[in-house]
Amino acid sequence: MIQRHAGQYRWEGVDVHPYKEDGTHFKTITRQTLFKGAHDLPVEFRYFEIGEGGHSTLERHNHTHEVMIIRGSGQVLVGDTVSNIALHDIVQVPSQTWHQFRATNGEELGFLCLVAIDRDRPERPGPEQLAEMRENDVVGEFIRH
Ligand code: MN
Predict the structure, then answer these.
(1) Which residues contact 71 (CB under 8 A, 6 or more apart)?
(2) CA 97 to centroid of ligand 1, rounded, Å
(3) Residue-range definition of the domain harbouring residue 128
(4) Does a structural domain hold residue 6?
(5) Residues 41, 43: Cα–Cα separation, whole Å
């Protein structure tokens, strides 16, 4: 089966949704689910796009992410490291590691993200955890909450 690309990072039969249903802890981001999993392949394959200046939720969880940038560029926090990311870079987010994607380069940041269907809910940082993160100046400057 082939699901055709419909142009502009949209795919036939795939709806464009808000990233999450509610909240103000993210900005200018959409989600498309390209693959919802099969019995022998229990993963979801999603495409996220962060508009210029936007960001994903600062969060961590037990499950891991495998991400590939396919549009634009930006920056990502994984653990205590902020990195520039661009086309075709691959980002691995390990279990229980704080992460946040930001479209900081005057353009959108679009990426594919592979995730297990059966996964735990993300945790957002509390005041203590934020204070701990801000002890690292680079991290403190980067995070949006
Ligand atoms: Mn996540």
Answers:
(1) 9, 49, 87, 108, 109, 110, 111
(2) 9
(3) 13-142
(4) no
(5) 6
Would you say residue 7 lies in a domain? no
| 95 in any annotated domain | yes
- Does residue 113 have an active-site annotation? yes
Report if residue 42 sits inside a domain: yes
pLDDT (tens digit per residue) in 71-112:
999 999 999 999 999 999 999 999 999 999 999 999 999 999
| Predicted pLDDT of residue 141 | 97
CATH of the domain at 43: 2.60.120.10
Q: What is the pLDDT of residue 22?
A: 63
Centre of ligand 1 to C-alpha 96, Å, is 10
Distance CA 75, CA 63 (A): 21
3-state secondary structure of 89: coil
Q: Which residue has the tokens 């995070």?
A: 143
Distance of CA 122 from the midpoint of ligand 1 (Å): 6
What are the angstrom distances between the C-alpha of 130 and each of 43, 48, 142?
Answer: 31, 25, 12
Q: How many structural domains are present in the chain?
A: 1
